[in-house]
Amino acid sequence: MANDTFDLDCDEECFTSAPLSRRTFSAASVAAASLAGLKAATAQGLDVTETEIDITTPDGTCDAVFFHPTEGKHAGVLMWTDIMGLRPVFYDMGRRLASQGYSVLVPNPFYRDGRAPLPGPDFNFATDRDVAMKLMGNLVAPGAAERDAETFVAWLDAQDQVDSSSKMGTTGYCMGGPLTMRTAGLLPDRIGAAGSFHGGGLATDRDNSPHLLIPKMKVHYHIGVADNDDEREPEVKNILRAAFDAANVPATIKVYEDADHGWCVPTSSVYNEAQAEVAWATLLDTFKAGLA
Q1: All structural domains of the chain with their residue ranges
Q2: How far apart are alpha carbons 143 and 139 in whole angstroms?
Q3: pTM higher than 0.85
Q4: Whether 190 contacts 168, CB under 8 Å
Q5: Is 122 in contact with 17 (CB distance < 8 Å)?
Q6: pLDDT per residue as tens, the chain (292 positions)
Q7: CATH architecture of the domain with residue range 12-290
């Protein structure tokens, strides 16, 4: 792997704070309803226990939250957030996934710069883009994401609520998409299933592009591509398809119609509930296939 930084492409739709407008107010109303839906869906699954914890890494102390079914041991899952970091909506998403029978760790990806929430609820992409770029700079520094992935997976393996005899899953959104690929490529004997949703920079022309790690993977993968991402870079899905096929790695790649970059996260201004539910069901199917 090349010893330099890598790309984490993110669009403005990743950023959920914006000057209040009719569109923003409407999106916030939809988000509130969708969060209620997430909680209702969780209530239909297993009882979940959640704990806020600190994890010692080679680079410092990472604040995180751990969700798991209240009883039993379950396959571990590492969930990578989007560029808005660890915040209430990812608590809901982690809780919902845990209710389906997984022990889920959601770390603050920007712990090197401070505790969550970072970049914070008042972040505005139009005026504060440089803040986000600084946060991402520390995450994409040489070896940083790989050290994090190895530490987080080892932490999960050490928990009583995690079935260490089972492979783990990983899922990520926006900038978290390529981080799932780096995790799966780095730890092929532990990661058995993965999902990337509106992930940026999955296949680039750099010599450390995430897609170059596919031959190292032993995983079932789902790549969920945003409609507008595909319009901008239509060749990416074909590059990924060819790489997965050449490596004989089982993968599904789907362009989600009418679903813009950021569509899976309920507080996003472009949240698409119908397509987000399709993505969620596909993720669960992928985990069942790879973590059986």
Answers
A1: 12-290
A2: 9
A3: yes
A4: yes
A5: yes
A6: 334 555 565 554 454 433 323 333 334 444 444 455 454 445 568 999 999 999 999 999 999 999 999 999 999 999 999 999 999 999 999 999 999 999 999 999 999 999 999 888 888 877 888 888 888 888 888 899 999 999 999 999 999 999 999 999 999 999 999 999 999 999 999 999 999 999 999 999 999 999 999 999 999 999 999 999 999 999 999 999 999 999 999 999 999 999 999 999 999 999 999 999 999 999 999 999 999 7
A7: 3-Layer(aba) Sandwich (3.40)
